[in-house]
Amino acid sequence: MFEKSTWIRLPRNVVMGHDVLADVGAVIADTHLTGRPLIVTSPTPKSVAGEPIVDQLEADGLDPLLTIVETANFQAVERVIETARSADVSYLLGVGGGKAIDIAKMAADDLGVDFISVPTAASHDGIVSGRGSVPDGDTRHSVAAAPPIAVIADTNVIAEAPWELTTAGCADIISNYTAVKDWQLANRLQNVEYSEYAGALSQMTAEMLVDRADSIKPGLEESAWLVVKALVSSGVAMSIAGSSRPASGAEHLFSHQLDRIAPGAALHGHQVGVGAIMIEYLHSGEKGAWHDVRDALERIDAPTTADELGVSAEDVVDALTSAHEIRDRYTILGGGISEEAAIQVATTTGVI
Ligand SMILES: NC(=O)C1=CN([C@@H]2O[C@H](COP(=O)(O)OP(=O)(O)OC[C@H]3O[C@@H](n4cnc5c(N)ncnc54)[C@H](OP(=O)(O)O)[C@@H]3O)[C@@H](O)[C@H]2O)C=CC1
Ligand SMILES: O=C(CO)COP(=O)(O)O
Ligand SMILES: [Zn+2]
């Protein structure tokens, strides 16, 4: 008897392009959301987009509330939940980078209300996904959360964001190569369920971005458009898989460990990019595709070395040797990499 079933949750509206921030009210109306909105944002995105959205919604006769998230952690999720409950909020908007969007989507999931994703930077591929990712003590949780009912990505706002945020988003996409290889390996060695569609979509997204790398330039709205499209596509792959597997393998474990070892040193996307160079080396050896991963990162101006990330050689080796410990996710790191092997991979690839 056939007993397999799946539930793929995708956004109903993906609105992207020039000045679409002005359409927030229209999107809310189209999705039939009623009641009081809570805008969850972080300090810089607050002035770039949070406050203009408040002004727009007030002019539409709504009564929006705004709250600021400084750091992505479970306490922040709890605070947003309390704020929403005490102010009788009906739905949430996450306005900002990955931090604000993750916290808003996790709080919305707990509250059982809808959530709209308004990225102000093309810095990560969680803008569409139904996953939240937050550190918790010595570990990190990738948890199921409410996928956005709508995504509003204003390419004008995103093109004006600092260039390194866009290169971080590109690197997060380039890391899909190793994430998919790790997923396939886990399928072969551990019988982990693998989705051909999600894996192919994730890989194709990385290939399309790399093919267009030379046309991705600072300050260009066309570039913001290309990168946002790729981030949406990668998020859809995660939604199809029902996990972050298509976009998160050992290179992400390495980055999550760096977050603990050298907090705030570099952007998520940049860390996973450097991780992808080394993890590709572990998959395919010295003559393998790690050169291509490194070249693709260089072409989009993303870091390829520990120095460029602002971390030490010891930090890289620590993060590599402990990456397998933080999550029950089988990758090429298996039961762990020795210190000697970590030094060798990081040295051969020029990361340290
Ligand atoms: N759920 C998922 O599937 C995924 C989740 N993630 C998560 O997302 C986070 C990484 O995302 P990232 O966006 O790098 O992190 P942040 O949200 O911390 O944003 C990075 C920086 O960009 C700033 N910023 C955002 N928008 C603008 C803008 N328009 N102009 C100027 N500055 C801006 C932020 O300012 P400020 O400091 O003022 O907030 C912050 O300093 C991690 O926590 C990661 O785990 C990443 C990928 C997928
Ligand atoms: O960053 C992500 C995908 O790019 C999410 O992955 P995690 O589940 O490892 O946090
Ligand atoms: Zn990522």
TrEMBL record:
GO terms for molecular function: glycerol-1-phosphate dehydrogenase [NAD(P)+] activity; metal ion binding. It catalyses: sn-glycerol 1-phosphate + NADP(+) = dihydroxyacetone phosphate + NADPH + H(+); sn-glycerol 1-phosphate + NAD(+) = dihydroxyacetone phosphate + NADH + H(+). GO terms for cellular component: cytoplasm. Its main location: cytoplasm. Pathway: Membrane lipid metabolism; glycerophospholipid metabolism. Its cofactor is Zn(2+). This is Glycerol-1-phosphate dehydrogenase [NAD(P)+]. The gene is egsA.
